[in-house]
Hints:
Layout: H1 9-15, E1 30-36, E2 39-47, E3 53-57, H2 69-75, H3 86-93, H4 109-113, H5 120-127, H6 156-177, H7 185-277, H8 314-323, H9 327-342
Antiparallel strand pairs: 1-2, 2-3
Helix pairs in contact: 6-7
Amino acid sequence: MTQTVNQYARWQAALAGKPMEWSRGDVPSGFFRQGTSKGQEAIAIWRDETGKIQCKRSIFGDGSKLTSEDEIGEELSGCFVYPIPYELYTAVTRDKAEWPPEYKTRLTMKEQQAGLIWTLELGRKKLGADIEPEAAENPRAVAGSNSEGVVEVLAPEKDLQDRIDKVSTRAKDFLKSIKNSPTTKEEADKLADFATKMSEFKTTAEDKHKVEKEPHLKAGRAVDAKWFGMRNAAEALRAGYLVILNGWLTAEKTRLAAEAAAATAERQRLADIEAAATNEAPVTVTAVVAEPVRAGNLRTVSQRKRRTWRCKDRNELALYLIKIENEEIYALLERLAQKLGAAGVKHASIEEEGVVSAS
Length: 359
């Protein structure tokens, strides 16, 4: 093919939705996409200064193996109905940006047979994404041109927030125009599309949150592994030492209690002898109190009694809780009813209650 003054003319026309003629031996220069099992592939085709065809692919190699128009026309025949702006090509290849959802839509077989060219407007209609307008692409931004557009690549969270704000503003205006009450199928469809778009934003936020947080979780798990292993080992040793020490504390407490009891008995014996010698009434002496048992130089370790409670009769406790009208218990019973009902448990106390709502 002889190189024309503007080798990108057919591609530029295709961007505007105009049918594009091409054949296996006469492929257009431009920027295209095609869906593959690995995702969306970006493709660049151009003629160099000598008029030789060149091809660059974003997924399957660099395109260097395709050295003729026949090879490109045969291998990439499905991409020419999917033209993409140069800005998007550089964004997804150079900047590793994600493909906008509109650019993941496909033409039907009937549309392809009719010679239809995919456009951004058509992609939005297929997504119901006309509710989220994008800035118009620069049709003159082509490789080798001095008028290449500059694409501002926002941070993912700012980009998503910007999209949410734009759609929510349009939704607010739309709801105001219909007074918050759709009366036609068209209005209902558009309101459903707004809800679907927000669902997509929610999923996108969750996915990006998971991806961005994973390195932090991984780093956190590494820190946990490094320190918690030592912490757990130290705790296990401490618990073992205390078990052994508790045996000594118990024995020592028993020994000192026995000594205190013996001392009290001796005091009582002597008091009784003295009372008998003086003909006085017998008196009861004050008991000798055993010294508390402690161990440790760095910190005092002793036996402590901890108050604990357990359920003695589950049925009686359940009946008691119901009678005292405890809101926490009611909420717990509702959750249990939901869980048991969803599991297929049938019981007179569980009633299915369908709630109709848009979803």
